């Protein structure tokens, strides 16, 4: 091709994709998709239900539609891996819950709880006996503590200001009459100002100790950040009377990130960060101390002290005591785990963890309860004595085991209650139903010798949620109820602890989730939330399964647009997210349901249905390998194989033509999208949202990759679509939030990917959304994302003839001259 013609093609491609000159970007106004889409985006969200601890009331938390970008644009402090609002002394972000109401299960009457206008609700916590709800109310720049009385459906303010909500700010005391609250301390002075002139450079130093730190965002950048974070994170613990609002200060102010009263209410377990703060890791890895206070604020015992946790290997845990918590079935006893392998999963070890317990006043030596072959992940205590289900997990085999352990008598041999591959959804026994014990703690309920379990009930035909009971003695299982018919219904909670009455969330493809009460053979519908977009009721939907070339089973939910007629060949969008599996059997399992409500909200790919596209949503792209250490070695080959099978299936089933197909995804799905365009010619175009494309920028692992860049440089190179940008000859739309806070998906990833494709004469468009993070929350951003996506596919995918084919023909013609 002549240089002149090549230059002309570059200009045409960039001009077409960007609507700009070849040498400049521009600030564009927010755009709108068609009005029918705007109406769906603005449709109200249904409330979120919560069953009270005494199982007689359902709390409905009413949500609002998308906030304007102006709410996202409030001043933000990006500190220690957090995003904070200095004006409120809490987390940054728009409100979500804007109202509360309660439904009495005896009368089925719904009563609203009156709240101040233009306020938001957060940190909602039930009292131990279920008679009240505590929550934080946000109005403007003020955070206040409120309590609602369930019987009267009224709410009152307890603390008008000074709530410190950087971390979880409130918890109930076991007596149900007091709250443990984090306050901003009196006399802390004004908000620190960042100096215009720094006092000196920021320095860091390494001293020969391995420290493989992931690519975190929003970290502290210097002393000024550290001072501001210290000012915001300093809390004073207070005991607040839930009736009068009177507050009694407990202990001294500190960088307190966690506080938990003992089950008997006589002690408080405190987690507190210590200086010096780190510039390399988020707050959760800062030096910290865990200690116990009595109710007079006197320190009883230091339980653990940790240095900065920048030494933890990929997939590892800290050395020393971790996961320190109260034993829910004991008045005042702490439990914790300690690594036997130095916290390093690469170390060969017959046993990886030990579990310990120590009883107040913490003067006696701790007692070792058990040792686990694999990594310990906590214990869920039961109503029976001091027994609990302890969980361990093998990250290599993905096998999870649950043991029934007697913490009162470690000499009693643990009994194996569950062992399975954690990805084996068909074998998932579900989760146990919980109840509040005498201390007000949530524990596994045991009724007449049975534990009751609820779960998704994955089957080859899709999810069929269930309620079962399991013998506490033999672990034999008996199914009580299972969802059937062309609906999706799952258990919210038990009303009668013998399983004779329970609440469910019920939905079908045209009806949003509603709350139902099952009592014997009677079924009572307690709510009647309407379909927010009835105009889409005629969308056709099917859960399909099929096989790729190597025999691995794949699945996808297929949506066909309104007005679709059998035999029509329509353009198709494939929306996917690759996952890693140890074996083909678990990779091929069906997950999801063909009967769930077809909710279309936010930037959902289901909006493509409004524009006449078919959608293959959650199209499985499994990466299968028996060795998790090397599973990514065949990532590209398996990805392409899955994509070919998906597109072939759309043709075989008669709704796709195999030509007008786009691939799209978010985050790791965006990474997948760019890789498929670089390594295949299966798709006409792609849409990649908030992705990472250059894996050398995440050198200490990514997703399930355990090796560092220096251990497997060829894998990092081969899996980086940035390195293969010259092979991307299909149009690629890149969308990214300017303030993405997800580890690894820096906005720079999309900016450099755009430059790489552009620099190699590719067709690419980059959309950077102001004030948006990894997911998009502002109304203007959501609507703009949809408008951009529709326009991109209408330009490059919808036409019968491939618009890019003419460019290819011109290039071939030029080359023959």
TrEMBL record:
Keywords: Hydrolase, Signal. This is S9 family peptidase. Residues 645-797 form the Peptidase S9 prolyl oligopeptidase catalytic domain. It comes from Hyphobacterium vulgare. It comes from the Bacteria. PANTHER family: GLUTAMYL ENDOPEPTIDASE, CHLOROPLASTIC-RELATED (PTHR42776:SF28), SERINE PEPTIDASE S9 FAMILY MEMBER (PTHR42776). The lineage of its organism: Bacteria, Pseudomonadati, Pseudomonadota, Alphaproteobacteria, Maricaulales. Residues 1-26 form the signal peptide.
